[in-house]
Amino acid sequence: MKLVFIGPDNARIELDVPGGATLMRAAVANGVRGIVADCGGCISCGTCHVYVQKPFIDRLPAISVNEEAMLENTASERQWNSRLSCQIELTEELDGLTVNLPPLQR
Amino acid sequence: MNTEQTGLAATGEVLLTPQPVHVPNDRVIDFDIYNPPGVSGGEKLQEAWKCLHKPGMPDILWTPRNGGHWIFTRFDAIGKAFLDTDHFSSKVMFVPRSWGEQYKFNPVTVDPPRHAPFRAVVNSAIGPRIMAKLQDSIEATAAGLIDALAPKGHCDFMREFAEPFPFRILLSLLGLPIEDVGHLKMLTDRITRPDGTMTLAQASQGFYDYLEPIIAQRQAKPGEDAISKMVNGEVNGRVVTMEEAQNMCALVTLAGLDTVVNVLGFSIQFLACNPQHRKDLIDNPELIPKAREELLRRFSVVAVARYINKDIAVDGLEFKEGEMVLLPPLLPGLDDRKYDDPMKVDFHRDSHAHMAFGYGPHVCAGAPLARREIDAMLKAWLTRIPEFEIAPGAKIIHQGGIVGAVHELPLVWDPATTRNMRH
Predict the structure, then answer these.
(1) ipTM of the complex
(2) B124, B193, B286, B365: which has the fewest Cβ within 10 Å?
(3) Long-range pairs for B337-341 at CB < 8 Å and ≥24 separation?
């Protein structure tokens, strides 16, 4: 499936990855530097923050209590479409998923 | 039994624990985290730990020191264990186990899923959002201290910068008077590098006694400081208890008064001896974030452990409930399977992946602060005191422990080479 990351400088990174993993794992495994993921996907560090573009934002599962708290403490300000990429499972309906990377992860 | 086996370490633990039958002989090594081989005689800390990666050495070892415990030595295995909190619990996270059992500073000693709401409270007080806003004041504090030192031409870097710089930042963040820092630092050091004068429980009690009236006052009348945020934080729909508040505040205090101090020390010791690396950073200040990660990789200082919560087999070895496994954050960055020439400091590496701040749910909550402190030091020091060296004749002694340390670091420089940045 296709994934698109758009950096704060508008640099575009496109990946073609197998589904199943999380967006964070796919990004880290493919060297997307804008995703840091210091804690390895435990909702502890807030350093895999992304802004998810439409229409994909509406296809994601609801934000958990723990993710909600972490999004309030990310280094870059939270926006209406903020999510933690470790909480996004790459299912079929997310093919083409496009996210913007925040200016600061930590 | 010889006399050494019957003696006691500074933690109160017997010096040597008999080898359990399920530990194969080829896994046994004599390694004491509180006194790694050669360190008391002048060997550098990370070089001493590097003996655990010697060719032919198995990846998982067992030492009779500190109550007897396993040691994981490699990047991948340590990372995996930090994520597997079902088996590798942090309810006891220091060796010896008898020492770690006295340590109750939640949330680091609480396993998921109970851990998350407490971590969220800590993040609300010292997390990335708060730290991004503190950037300027961190830089100004570093600059102010160095401006005062530069004309002197010499200092003990540990006492005159590595300590006062993060101490001022932390005490201001917590809203505590700076005069109290000596007492809090003493309690911290008794926990991370025990000297036999105090048990861990006694040092913890010192934190609790100090914090209790402060917490009560800030629950009654909250301010903008990090303690106020933590002690009025909510977990699972209720306000934290006094005991939870004491432990959270003690944890943040202890963590902010020791680890970064020593990372600053090791980093400046390296830079004092390596003018080319200094020049690289002075000529290319945009390299500082990469240099900071490389210094964290190469000069990690922490040696924490996990408690086996239920039996598990790894690498053909049996780990039994109640045993302790050291997962030293100090080692992954030095793994030669991850890095060519891992002991070489190279600010231009493609990757500087390390676990200096741990990994998994308990990854250091203060990392965003520590990273800013390291950056601020590199920037402020190198622009003001670009040329410096270790005082001639000085022998730099490191110390082992839960947090490794630089004891003293006397530096000298010619004040004529310094730059006055004050306007």
Answers:
(1) 0.95
(2) B286
(3) B337/B74, B337/B75, B337/B76, B338/B75, B339/B297
Q: What's the confidence (pLDDT) of residue B4?
A: 54
- CA-to-CA distance for B376 and B370, rounded, in angstroms? 10
Q: How far apart are CA A80 and CA A47, in angstroms?
A: 18
Chain B within 8 Å of A82 (Cβ-Cβ)?
Answer: no
- Residue A69 to residue B120, Cβ atoms within 8 A: yes
CA B44 to chain centre: 16
Q: Where are the beta strands (DSSP E) in B150-241?
A: 154-156, 234-235, 238-239
CB contact under 8 A, B128 and A74: yes
Cβ(A73)–Cβ(B230) under 8 Å?
no
CA dist list (Å): B77 to A45, B83, B175 = 21, 10, 40
Q: A51 near A100, Cβ under 8 Å? A: yes
Please state the pTM of the whole predicted model: 0.96
Spans of all domains in chain A: 2-100
Instruction: DSSP for B30-41, please give it.
Output: ---TTS-TTGGG
| pLDDT tens by residue, B76-133 | 999 999 999 999 999 999 999 999 999 999 999 999 999 999 999 999 999 999 999 9
Nearest CA distance, A23 vs chain B (angstrom): 17
Contact indicator for B227, B128 with CB cutoff of 8 Å: no
3 state DSSP class of B410: strand
Asked if A44 is an interface residue toward chain B (Cβ–Cβ < 8 A), one would say: yes
* CATH entry 3.10.20.30 includes domain A2-100: yes
Please name the amino acid found at residue B46.
Q
Give me the residues of chain B with pLDDT under 50, please: 1-3
